[in-house]
């Protein structure tokens, strides 16, 4: 057997040889390791707060996925543990899909990395999977200690399908994982609530529109269980138990894209306002992240701790200078 450390918050993880399967289930206490039917200790998923029957034999892969009609359909986004939507040049967005408990054989379509991805990947020691990236961005990401797997560099598992470049790169994560270093997460992405925590207070809503810029808004619908995009391009949409909207500082990344558009960098640390949709309940909140590698801490606007229910989460990472409001009904 082997011992792995997720963090004091996520608990010590002991994976026994008799364990099998990777299905998640709720845990009575995220601070303590849980025991399965056979008495074995199980692991805690830092991206969802749920328990797993065994620790995955892989790191967290952060796959950069195009979010424009040119690369549609997005493939296997629904199997990610968490997704972060971020602003790129021209006011459009790109996804960072985080995979830990499940590794699909096809994820795409894969696009280039951004410096914003440092703050997305570092809390869980994520390894970035991308088609490539600007030289200064690659240098910064490597300097931050993050592993990069890119199609431009010939990383295994990345290939092109029958679409047209640059919108046709896909990744086979199990194949990539064969040569990836198994760096396990050390802390939870959010502070996760106990399974018996009381429900949060707030107005009940069933739709949301998140304006990233004048040219892009992501629309959402709550189906009674999870939030799903209504204007996404995925073959099967990601179901988010928690939809977390964060406003963060933005700066110029220092270069332009081939069309001459300046590339923005959303700085994913510090603090700001937030809107958190927990099921059908809207909570106006605040967020704080001490540094790029820290756990995100949420509080209500009056300073009370706000822990997320365990489950899949989608983060809308907005620029304070570009983004519009979040409209809910």
UniProtKB/TrEMBL annotation:
Keyword Signal attributed: yes
PROSITE patterns, per database record: PROKAR_LIPOPROTEIN
Lineage top rank: taxon: Bacteria
Domain DUF3048, first and last residues per copy: 47-183, 210-315
InterPro entries from the UniProt entry: DUF3048_C, DUF3048_N, YerB-like_sf
Signal peptide span: 1-21
Name under which the protein is recorded: DUF3048 domain-containing protein
